[in-house]
């Protein structure tokens, strides 16, 4: 808390609070017993369990989103904007090559999805849930580009 307060006061008021010993003592007393909250972390085991156990009929799109976000270090916005178009995903047989051209950091990035994850992504991109169900809906005729996750735009608020 001290470092945040010191930085804020220094930036906004150009005052160094290191010399205010009473303030430092007060902040130390206020901070006694405080425990910081630990962030929940998705472990490799959680990742694998979800991919293996979750029903494809219901969770296939979420599996692919998880694979792409983890494999490519993608931000949520990169899944929804022009950065991740269907045209930017190339099926090379043993792997998928994904190119994201315009990222938040203004640097294009290419990554590969390999191993057992390929079959999950292939099932999604080919619409292969059986029975001819389309997983990726065809884009409207007046649409100039097709987002890879177009139909999930309203669902990704918490992803």
Task: Walk me through the structure.
The protein is mainly α and 159 residues long. The chain has two domains: 1-36, no CATH class; 44-158, Intergrase catalytic core (hpI Integrase, Chain A). The protein contains six helices and three strands; from the N terminus they run αααααβββα. Strands 1-2-3 form a three-stranded antiparallel β-sheet. A hairpin with an 8-residue loop joins β2 and β3. Keywords: DNA recombination. One of its GO terms (molecular function) is DNA binding.
Distance between the terminal alpha carbons, to the nearest Å?
29 Å
Q: Enter the CATH topology name of the largest domain.
A: hpI Integrase, Chain A
Q: What portion of residues is helical?
A: 25-40%
Low-confidence stretches: 130-136, 141-146
Domain module count? 2
Name of the CATH first level of the largest domain: Mainly Alpha
Strand proportion = 5-15%
Described by its quaternary structure, the protein is: single chain
Structural class label: mainly alpha
Count of β-strands: 3
Could you report the average pLDDT, rounded to the nearest whole number? 76
Order of helices and strands: HHHHHEEEH
Radius of gyration: 23 Å
Name of the CATH superfamily of the largest domain? Intergrase catalytic core
What is the overall silhouette? elongated
Helices, by number, come to 6
Major beta sheet, specifics? 3 strands, antiparallel
By CATH, the architecture of the largest domain is named Orthogonal Bundle
Q: What order do the strands of the largest sheet run in, or round the barrel if closed? A: 1-2-3
Keywords: DNA recombination
GO molecular function: DNA binding
């Amino acid at each position: 808390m001290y470092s945040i307060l010191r930085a804020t006061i220094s930036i906004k008021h150009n005052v160094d609070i290191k010399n205010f010993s009473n303030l430092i003592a007060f902040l130390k007393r206020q901070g006694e017993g405080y425990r910081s909250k630990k962030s929940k972390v998705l472990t490799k085991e959680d990742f694998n369990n979800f991919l293996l156990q979750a029903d494809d009929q219901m969770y296939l799109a979420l599996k692919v989103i998880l694979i792409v976000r983890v494999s490519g270090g993608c931000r949520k916005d990169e899944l929804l904007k022009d950065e991740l178009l269907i045209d930017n995903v190339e099926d090379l047989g043993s792997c998928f090559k994904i190119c994201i051209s315009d990222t938040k950091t203004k640097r294009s990035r290419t990554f590969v999805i390999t191993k057992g994850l390929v079959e999950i992504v292939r099932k999604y991109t080919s619409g292969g849930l059986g029975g001819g169900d389309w997983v990726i809906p065809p884009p409207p005729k007046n649409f100039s580009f097709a987002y890879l996750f177009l139909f999930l735009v309203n669902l990704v608020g918490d992803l």
